[in-house]
Amino acid sequence: MKILFLVLALFVLVFIVLAWFTGRTARRIEAFLPARGWFVDVPGARLHIREAGVGPAILLVHGLGGQSAHFDYGVFETLARNHRVIAVDRPGSGWSERVPGTPADLSTQAAALAALIGSLGLERPTVAGHSLGGAVALTLALEHPDKVGALALIAPLTHVQSAPPEVFRALAIGSPWLRTLFAWTLATPGAIAGGKKVLATVFAPESVPRDFPVKGGGMLSLRPRQFLAASSDMQALPAHMPRLVDRYGQLAVPTGVLYGRGDAILAWEEHGQALADKVPGLRLELVEGGHMLPVTQPQAVADFVSRCAQFAAPERAAG
User: Is the pTM value of this prediction over 0.85?
Assistant: First the structure.
């Protein structure tokens, strides 16, 4: 009995230490990388956005576990020369908040973006979605077609995955209480210890910029609340992706897709070409590169989004 008590006491002590370290790390990261934009309240979320430029509107939507700073390697700045550009942190990501109890499914996230578009008075913007942000953008265009002028999808998730990529397996913890326990104990130190390996896989075959943890906002992903949000995002996909795929034939807005041939996270054949096969008129462009094109090839991405935006001119969108 005494040994059992000592084991339990040691477990509690380790838990307290890890939770203290996680909380302290999160507070330090948030102090070092504060919110740089402003907030818009929509149903189910408080969205953090940044805005620049004037002209036809473009809405930038990041991927799983990321934040709007992924577009800060030149995409945001370049597009703002000729467009009104809004970069948004999806609900629960970056500095955005998801109201407790709000689902993380694609339809709910798309509804939040539709409300944001209405709140900002955007006239059918071009929606540029990267990775999971591409699935959200597709859902937005299908369920709120009056809110979207064109789609520019960068390495988008478009079809059901049989299993998550290996680097995202920790997000698949099914039990809510185990997921929370993991987020507040092992997730942060584990991400610190294995972060370089994970990023190398996500960026492959391209290199990870040395300043990505700060300039790209990568450090924000170390916080437990972002881990939990990303986990909810990923676990909501299996129930909603099939119904999204079934509606691709109804997509009625001009759509372009940009993919890296060497993408190690989402294969272009299974997500880019497969979408092109279902959507007449879709323009699929391939470049040499990996999954993180907004960071590694910002000029190519900005040029691609600009081309897609040309098809969302007001006179075309109004029709």
Answer: yes
Q: Which option is the CATH number for 10-313: 3.40.1280.10, 3.50.30.70, 3.40.50.1820, 3.40.50.2300?
A: 3.40.50.1820
Q: How far apart are CA 257 and CA 134, in angstroms?
A: 9
Residues 207-235: pLDDT tens digits?
A: 999 999 999 999 999 999 999 999 999 99
